[in-house]
Amino acid sequence: MHPINYKQLGIYSLFIVFAFFLASCKGLQKDTVVYFNNFESDNLANIIRGKIGAYNGSRVIGRYSQDGFVLRLDSLPIHNMLQISFDLYIHDTWDGNSIKPEGPDIWIMNVDGWSAIYATFANGQFTTYTQSYPVLQPEYNPATGFKFFDNKPNSNAIKTDLPGACKLQKINGGTSLYRITRTIEHTTSTLEVGCFAQLEDPDMVNKNCNESWSIDNIKIKTIEFK
Question: By CB count within 10 A, which of 160, 164, 172, 202 is most buried?
Fold first, then answer.
């Protein structure tokens, strides 16, 4: 008879408990994609102030500068959380945390009226400005207002060598691409997502060419925990 290896027995028991725990967790979460749009079919259903443009061989929503769009959905399935993901293109010369008249240049996403993203971006071939992203919200002091975090330009961008869209058209490094995902608590059957920007530029005549943005591959997913 072989002696009992209590160490191995303990590890085996823990493995059985862990396997049982994983098995019991199956089916506890239900993910449902309730919206997806890559804009290749020029579909602007459910979008207010939507416009379709072309960028780098793809259809996108945009370009926008100071303005933006609102996406509204209803009849969402029962859920506890919501995940919003998309590709954000920052085009041409954004001045990040700089002060007026050049900046700050802020990109905004609101969900059902509350701020999900309020962050500055710095972009351009030779920019020395800082940006707050990937920090999603600034600090706020009632006496002094918003204070944005200082991060390097293009922080957390997945591509920084794309051509510009207007002012830096055909110049690599004129656009940066960010892949953004926000998961939030959400239970109502309706959803409103607004995407906007607050951009400062002393060259008001060419502002839309100097600083703009666009979005691609919007996906919205409900998450239900049973």
Answer: 164
